[in-house]
Amino acid sequence: MLLWFDALPGRGASCSTKPMRLFGLLRSRHTGRHRAFLSLPPVSLLGATLAICTLPLGAMAQHRVFPADTIRLPAAEVRAPRTAGQWATGARLTTLDSARLRERPFATLADVVGPEAGIFLKHYGPGQLASVALRGTSARHTAIIWRGFAVNLPTAGETDLAFVPVQEAGRVTVQHGPAGATFGTGAVGGAILLDAPAPPAPGFRARMQQALGAFGYAATAASASWATAHGSVVVNGWHRAARNDFPLRFREFGTWVTRRQTDAALWQRGASLDAHYALPGMGTVAVAGWWSYSDRQLSPTLGAASAHARQLDATQRLVLEWTSPTARAGLTTVRAGFFRDRLDYHDDNFTSPSRTDTWQAQVEHSRALGRRLTGRVGVEAQQFRAAVPAYGTALLTQQRASLFALLHYQPTERLTLSLNARQAAISGLAAPPLAPTLGLAWRALVRQRMVLTIKGSASGSYRAPTLNERYYQPGGNPLLRPERGRGAEAGVQMTTSAGSFSTETELTAYQQRIRDWVRWAPARPGDAIWSPLNLLEVQTRGLEATTRLDAGTARRGICLRLSYTLTQAWQHRATRPTEVLGQQLIYVPMHTLAGSLESRWHHWRARLDGQWYSQRFVQPDHGAALPAYGLLDLTLARAVLLPVVRLDFTATLCNLTDVRYQSVAARPMPGRSWQVSVAVASTR
Amino acid sequence: MPQPSAKLWLPLLGSALLLTASCTKDDDNSPPTPVAGAYSAGVFIINEGSGGNGNGVSFFDRSNLSQIKRDIYQDANGNAIGDIPQSLTVVGDKAYLVVNNSNKIEIVAADTYKHVSQIEQLKLPRYFTALSSTKGYVTEAVTYSGRPGRVRVINLTTNTLGDTIAAGIQPEQLLQAGGKVFVSNWGDNTLTIIDPTRNTVETSLVVGGAPRTMVLDADNKLWVLCGGAVYNPDYTPNTAKSTNARLVRIAPASNAIELTIDLGDNMANYGTLQRSPDGRTLYYTGQGGVFSLPITATVAPTAPLVRRGSFYGLGVDPKDGLLYLTDALDYVSNGRVIRYGTTGAVRDSFAVGVNPGSVYFRQ
User: Fold this and answer.
1) b/e map of A444-482 (b: 16 or more CB within 10 Å)?
2) How are strands ordered across the β-sheet holding B211-216?
3) Backbone phi, then psi, for A87, in 5-degree steps?
4) How many CB atoms lie within 10 A of CB B181?
5) Residue B270: strand, helix, or coil
6) Is residue B198 packed enough to be buried (19+ CB in 10 Å), middle (13-18) or exposed (0-12)?
7) Residue A141 and residue B180: Cα distance in Å, rounded?
8) Which of A239, B295, B306, B349 lies in disulfide reach of A269, CB 3.0 to 4.6 Å?
């Protein structure tokens, strides 16, 4: 059960979708004066198409400004109470533009997260491993939460974003900064939340899209939805393949030579399901499924001989959820999930199969504890069953559990405070530290056309050792301690609106200290075998600035989005004298710029996307670095409306200026390339 | 998968487990024209690199330590040498650089490091030795799955591959002595002894766990340093083949083991054995630093000559007997070379490339 207002403007909200459509729907509840929705008491609304229930509302949605004649309903949902907005008071969130995600349903998060959220990703090549790191941390410090459950592989502790298709992701929100209290292990640098897509429009809808691109790229995506007043079903399927034989130009023996990339082809397919049904008087049941299969060649580094490496990934995920009817007694959500992950690597010298089954369950109960105070308690349990030959045992079982409690307090209309805490336990290990978060959001200035919010939070977070870190033979370190993070952030957020012109600006400063940071190294100097060791203490700090300007109407207008981040991260202390201290960590660009300019004119849309990353050191001692690079993508789209279908034609020129760059050393990326697609969607 | 180089197996865990690194810039300036004879005498450090970064050959002239050249192959040719250079052998006016993860031997002019030719299609090659001006051997690990490796015969006139000679698991170094070629099988507990006139295996000699580096002493006895620990392909210890670390002295003519010196069970498998210029002193690295012993010794030294916790490779300059100990530090940053006198006193130190694995000298 959820309320989903896809069209709400806000951070990352669609440039091309104006709020008017939504407000047209809601205008019957017109109050006659501007009110931020925060001032509304908890509402329960069983509408004609959607069942909604709003608990006290989080900071995420508090800062938007709406026309004075419009009553606001939050983009909150009860479906996934772990959704960022509700409880992450004072945190910085970026919601990826859902309209833009819909434009490329077969793209993966690896393609969209970087430019959309202004985050540097390590791309090992097109379609190859792509790992995300937030705020100067590493991929293992980013929790990926799908429909309420963490999906980072329990073996490696991270997710390859090149294996997460946009269509199956649903709604994508990035929470920058530690979120251990809300999301548990791994949410040290932040979290990426993949929530259920918006409930579809009533009736039956179908959409199909075909894309073609350079270097043998072909992708197909199809989706169908059906919805009534009581429930909805959305099914998606997709397929994509690419040769990725892009040209490489390099020096060899004193002359320039051009060759094509080899061993980089991929074949991927998948399907997903999201459905919900409101049982009369008995709450709502929901189901989500995700099946993916990927077969990839892994290209060698430049200069290395191909070992014909290949990786098979297969994922089956199913989540069932029941949410109680809204009552004075509060709201209960029960959720159970089963994930099966397969990752088989093999090359000429080496075979490494792995299968992991994860059973997990969550029970949460939220209730109002007075007019201004809301609380939630919950428990979560997971069991991992790993069949990984490298662990030296046929089947390895591990349990984790955690208790969490959240308090949300609004002493005044303008002030929101929250206190979250989570305590986890891991079988065979000392308990990770308590992960608390204290958050604050204060709408310091509320004017007719402007809202200024001051926000801040302080958090503790942790990362439990992964199964590989504990059990991989050779080297696994069963006694590895969890990494522990402590950090704080503060910021200011301002939204303005005047007629058809609106802006949204946010500035955040943060710092975090992470202790017991794990690095693989020889357990003893000179040892042939490396082990994960709690070697480091890392300090991070930075600034994040984003702004969005939107002018015009749905039919004609422009939208400008800009973001800049300053990230500093360094080893503050180490348990070995050979470690380099005080220098910017490898693969953390100090400066990142991202932006887009979109112009819409009737059925035409043109957009220029840009991203720029400063140099990344590739050796801790800064003995080598990859140069800064900037990329521009140009997209032109045209919609054609026919009586019962809508056609969307899209053409994109990627890497417009043909920059030759490496995101990861010795892993070249393609120069200029193109992609075209056509989509057919039923309109009634 | 016994005794793989960390840099070989780590990438196999998937990038999930590892930091990778490096810098390859597409638009480098034209390489400077090599100076004839620039590298005819001096010290060469093989930097194995990390994830495609920081690898290459560093060089310095003994008389001018401040002018270290970080990557003379890149300087001469404009491109990186490849992934994980492993060893360097000079034959006449050519240098043979075995590049492990590029499956090739890169042949350069020994004085200029300008590319001459390359021998490709090898399988995880490790070390090279020339039996004549026309014939060479290279060891190939072939695989890390616990299956045996091999020695490949190379025609040095045409730079083409010839016969293969079966070896043990992870054949590593080659040493010519007594008209034979001794091959240390690092993933095993044997030496393979080859008759080079027929390119056939004469015999296999059990010496101890994980034999790797070998030297010939002043009395033409062959010494091999065994790290001790042998692993099964699944990395469980191979108790049948593992031993304490040991130094083994062999008479090349008879293949007889004349002496075994137990070094205890606390050795690193990356231990390196070298000899003094006169061949009367042996140096080896193990836990605690660099140890030395005369070739007449029958028991292990109790204290190290150089006490140091962190090190990687060892070279001894045949010109003046100075010790060159390499230190990979954190294995992803530039490493260092520390020079010691024969008494173990530190002379000086300087930065080289990433993972400096071995040191070579031209007089």
Assistant:
1) eebeeeebbbbbbbbbbbbbbbbbbbbbbbbbbbeebbb
2) B211-216, B222-226, B246-251, B256-262
3) -115, 0
4) 22
5) coil
6) exposed
7) 55
8) A239
Write down the pLDDT at residue B104.
Answer: 96
B292 pairs with which residues across the strands?
B283
Interface with A, mutate which of B24, B308, B334 (most A CBs under 10 A)? B24
B117 touches chain A (CB under 8 A): no
Provide, as residue numbers in chain B, all residues whose Cβ is less than 8 Å from the Cβ of A525: 268, 309-311
Which residue in B312, B272, B313 sits closest to B292, CA to CA? B272
Instruction: Determine, for residues B23 and A347 on separate chains, whether the beta-carbon distance falls below 8 Å.
Output: no
Which residue in A251, A301, A580 is closest to B333 by CB distance? Answer: A580
Asked if B17's CB is within 8 angstroms of A472's CB, the reply is yes
- Nearest-CA distance B150 → chain A (Å): 15
Rounded Cα distance between A618 and A662, Å, is 11
Residue B251 token pair = 């008479």
Cα–Cα distances in angstroms (integers) from residue A96 to residues A26, A93, A99, A115, A437, in the given order? 24, 10, 9, 10, 24
Radius of gyration of chain B (CA): 19
Q: Which positions in chain B touch A301 (Cβ < 8 Å)?
A: 20, 22, 51-52, 83
Please report the pLDDT score of residue B224 as a whole number: 98
| Residue B125 touches chain A, beta carbons under 8 Å | no
As a whole number of angstroms, the distance between CA A299 and CA A317 comes to: 28
B23 contacts A626? CB cut-off 8 A: yes
As a whole number, mean pLDDT of residues A554-577 equals: 94
Is the ipTM reported for this complex over the cut 0.90? no
What is the signed CA dihedral for B72, B76, B80, B81, rounded to 10 degrees?
-70
Three-state SS letters, A445-510: EECCCEEEEEEEEEEEEEECCCHHHHHCCCCCCCCCCCEEEEEEEEEEEEEEEECCEEEEEEEEEE
Give strand ranges (E) for B131-243. Answer: 135-140, 150-155, 160-166, 171-177, 180-185, 190-195, 200-206, 211-216, 222-226
**How many of the other CB atoms lie within 10 Å of CB of A20?**
16
> Which tens digit of pLDDT belongs to each residue from B213-246?
999 999 999 999 999 989 888 778 899 999 999 9
The 10 Å Cβ neighbour count of residue A562 is: 17
Query: What are the Cα distances from residue B16, in Å, to A158, A255, B84, B193, B260?
Result: 7, 35, 20, 41, 43
Q: Which residue of B has its CA nearest to A157?
A: B16
Residue B3 has pLDDT above 70, yes or no: no
3-class SS of residue A114: helix
**Could you tell me if A471 and A396 are in contact, meaning their C-beta atoms sit under 8 angstroms apart?**
yes
Q: Distance between CA atoms of A200 and A204, rounded to whole angstroms?
A: 9
Q: Is A124 close to B15, i.e. CB distance below 8 A? A: yes
Would you tell me how many other CB atoms lie within 10 Å of the CB of residue A361? 17
